[in-house]
Structures are given as C-alpha cells and as structure tokens.
Specification:
mainly alpha; about 0% strand; 7 helices; Sodium channel and clathrin linker 1; coiled coil
C-alpha cells in the first residue's frame, strides 16, 4: 500500500466523520436536566472516542501493510543488488558492513519519512474533518436558502405576499424566541433553585464549620482536661509511691514499735518478777523482824530472869545482845530500805514502761489510721483514674465520629462545588447559546432585509420592464393611446 492509498483511506474516514456532539448536547439541555445532558454528552464523547479508536486501528493496519510492502521492496532491492553483485563476487567483509549500515540508514530514513507522512496524513485528516464540518454547515445553509428560493419562486411575487411571508417568518421567530425565553426562564429558575440549594449548602457548611470550631474548642478543652487528669494521675502516682514508701516505713516502724513493746513487756514482766521477789524478800524480812522481835522479847525476859540471878555478867551479856540487836536491826533496816528503794525504782520503771507502751500504742493507732486513709485515697485515686480513662476513651470516640462527620461534610462540599461548577458551565453555555441565538437572529434579519430589498429592486425592475413591454404593445397597437398613457404616467410621476 502506498502513501496515496493511505491518504485516500484517511480522506474516506474524514468523509464519514464521527457523530456530532453539539446537537445531542443541545437536545439533552432542552429535554432534561444537567445530569441527563452530562450523560448524553458522555455517551457522545464515548462514541466519538470509539470511532477514533477504530479509525486509529485502521490507520495502524494500513501503516503496517505499508511497512511490510516497503520491507518487501527493500528485500527485493537487496536481492536485485545481490544478483548484480554475484558477477563481481563478495570478497570484502567491510563492504558488506557498509551495505548493512547503508541499509539501516535508508530504513531509518524510510521510517522517518513514513512518520512525517503519517503526521501529514493526521493533519490532512484534521483539516478534512474541519472542512467537512464547515461544508456540512454551508450545505445546510445552502439547502435552506435553496428551499427559501424555491418557496419564493413558487409563491406569487407580490409585495403583500412577501409581507405576509415576512410576518409569518417573524411570527415563527417570535414563537421560537418565546420558546427560547421560556426555556431561558426555566433555566434561570433552575439556576435560582440551584443557587438557593447552593446557598442552603453554604449555610449548612457555615453551620458545620461553626460546629467544627466549637468541637475543636471542646476538643482542646477536653485535651487540656485530659492533660490535667494525666498530670493529676502522675501526681497521684507519685503520691501513691510516696504513700507506699511511707506505708513501708510505717510498717517498719510498727514492727519496731511492736518489737519495742515486746521488749518493754518482757522488761515489765522481769520488773514485776523482781518486784514480786522484792516483796517476797520484804515479807521474809518482816517475818524475820517479827521473829527477831519475839526473840528479843524472849531474850529480855531471859535477861530479866537472869538479871535477878546473874548481875554484871548478865548486864554485859545484855549489852552484847543489845549491840547485836542494834547491828541486826540496822542491817535489816538497811536491807529493808534498799528493798524499798528497789521497789520504788521498779515501780518508776514500770510506770515509764507503761507510758512508753501507751505512746507506742498511740503511734501504732495513728499509723493504722494513716494507713487506712492512704488505702481510701488509693481507692479514690483508682476510681478517678478509671473515670479519667473512660472519659479519654469517650473523647477519642467523639473525636473519631467528628472526624468522620467532617470528612462527609468535605465530600458534600466537594459535590456542591462540583454542582456549582456545573451550574456555572451551564450558565456559560446558556449565555453562549443566547449570544449565538442573538447573532443568528441578527444575521437572519439582515439576510431577510437584504433579500427583501433585492426582491423590491427586482420587483421594481420587473414593473419597469412590464411597463416598457406594455408601452411597446400599446405603441404597436395604438400610438395615440400610448402617448396619452405616457402623458398620464408622466403627470402622475
């Protein structure tokens, strides 16, 4: 296949153009809403894309056939060159390499030429498509003009008929204008409705933004409260650690106090034993004293008895006995005073020990109260920590739900923006159609005025020619009547 065949195929493809989009789009705009028009436009664009794909595949097939034909021609040329070179013989390998390089260069040039030709073909295709579209428009315009001329030729060429035809055309144009105005009113109402819905969406978006800001402030406040709870939690944890340390210390002190109390109780028991022993000793001493008093009485009685019988010897013996009794009395009295002092010391030690035990019991009671208070505060801190964790979880869930609602609102705002953009595009297309309709109306009225002026001139020319023919006929028939009519015509003029 040659480039001429390829260009011919492209020209035939240009003769069969893709389906037009603009009439379908206008019909969709006239019949339905913006969504239906967009669907129709999308379908038409898809049809056009499929058409161009088919055309592209056909061009590629033609191009592959062209490349194959060029390859066949190149192989034939190589074979012919090989046959011509058989007489001379292939002796030099460098010459073969040069031929190969030359073939590559030629093939690259051929490929580049084919690419350039393909670009030229695409440009021709585009130009032919544009020419086809313009020719179709001109053909439609010419068909309309031919129909108008035929209708004018069929109708009688009177000025009244032209006026009636012009008034009918104007009425038709007015009807079209009214229809377009109704469509424009409908479009404006739809645009107003869309603008109202857009305003409602904007108000809703503003309210949502306000809610979002309020929720942000609430979230910040909750974050601050969470931070406060966390600081309180850390402080309470440190307090708990200190209280646990104090608890351990107090338990150690309580153990020490219990040990001291045990020691004091043991000492108290020992002191009580010593006191009992001292009391027993005092009782024995009192018994001995009583026995000594009884013995003294006996000795005195004996001495008195012996005094009567024994004189001086008995006095000496009595003196010795008194000395012994005094020494014994002094010894027993010193023992008794020592035992009494030991008893007093034991009583004082017992009182001190009882005071120490009472103090230890008071400290133990205070430590137990502190320990109970620490347990209560620990339970309260655990409850506060549990409530704070619940509150944090609830806040996180609220924040997640709020983020989801904000994402949905962003999607809604995006869709509203897309709808607003579509509405603006529809308004722009409506303005373009309105301007186009105005320009078409202006061109149509100008054309009708030009045609009416041309028809008037033609009518005047035909009237003048008709009058000339009538004058000629009258001159031929009756010259006197023709002169009178010419005079009357001149007078009327």
């Amino acid at each position: 296949m040659s480039t001429g065949q390829l260009s011919g195929h492209v020209s035939t493809a240009a003769v069969n153009p893709p389906p037009e989009v603009e009439p379908q789009h206008q019909q969709a705009l006239a019949s339905g809403g913006p969504v239906r028009s967009i669907d129709e436009l999308y379908r038409s664009i898809q049809q056009e894309i499929q058409f161009y794909k088919r055309e592209h595949e056909a061009i590629r097939a033609d191009l592959s056939q062209l490349i194959q034909s060029n390859r066949v021609e190149c192989t034939l040329g190589e074979l012919l060159a090989g046959k011509d070179g058989d007489g001379e013989g292939v002796e030099d390998e460098e010459g073969g390499g040069k031929d190969q390089e030359y073939f590559k260069r030629i093939s690259n040039e051929v490929i580049n030429n084919l690419r350039n030709q393909l670009e030229i073909v695409w440009e021709e295709k585009n130009t032919l498509e544009s020419l086809w579209k313009s020719s179709q428009k001109t053909i439609q315009i010419l068909e309309l003009e031919i129909g108008e001329y035929r209708r004018q030729l069929k109708q009688p060429k009177s000025l009244q008929d032209l006026r009636q035809h012009y008034t009918a055309a104007l009425e038709l144009l007015q009807q079209n204008l009214l229809a377009l105005r109704t469509k424009l009113v409908q479009r404006t109402e739809e645009n107003k409705r869309l603008q109202a819905s857009g305003a409602v969406d904007q108000d809703r978006l503003r309210t949502l933004e306000r809610d979002f800001s309020a929720l942000q402030t609430e979230h910040q406040q909750l974050q601050s409260t969470v931070e406060e709870f966390r600081s309180k939690e850390s402080k309470l944890s440190t307090d708990l650690e200190t209280t646990m340390k104090e608890k351990a210390e107090l338990e150690a002190l309580l153990d020490q106090a219990n040990a001291l109390a045990r020691k004091h109780m043991a000492r108290e028991n020992q002191a009580l034993a010593k006191v009992q022993e001292a009391l027993q000793i005092a009782d024995t001493a009192i018994d001995e004293k009583n026995t000594l008093v009884v013995r003294e009485k006996d000795v005195r009685e004996e001495c008195n008895f012996l005094a009567s019988t024994i004189g001086q010897v008995m006095e000496e013996a009595a003196h010795k006995v008194e000395l012994e009794m005094n020494s014994l009395r002094m010894g027993y009295e010193g023992r008794i005073t020592g035992l009494e002092k030991q008893l007093e010391q034991a009583g004082e030690a017992l009182e001190q020990q009882t005071q120490k035990t009472r103090q230890a019991e008071g400290r133990a009671a205070t430590l137990e109260d502190k320990f109970k208070a620490l347990i209560v505060t620990n339970q309260n801190l655990d409850a506060d920590l549990h409530a704070a964790s619940k509150l944090i979880i609830e806040m996180e869930l609220k924040l997640e739900a709020f983020q989801k609602t904000m994402a949905k609102e962003r999607e809604i705002s995006k869709t509203s923006q897309v709808r607003e953009h579509e509405l603006k595009q529809l308004l722009a297309t409506a303005e373009q159609l309105k301007d186009r309709w105005k320009s078409e109306m202006v061109t149509l009225t100008d054309g009708l005025q030009r045609k009416l002026a041309a028809l008037r001139r033609e009518n005047c020319m035909l009237k003048a020619e008709n009058n000339q023919l009538k004058d000629q006929l009258l001159r031929v028939a009756d010259p006197a009547v023709a002169e009178n009519q010419n005079r009357d015509r001149d007078l009327q003029q």
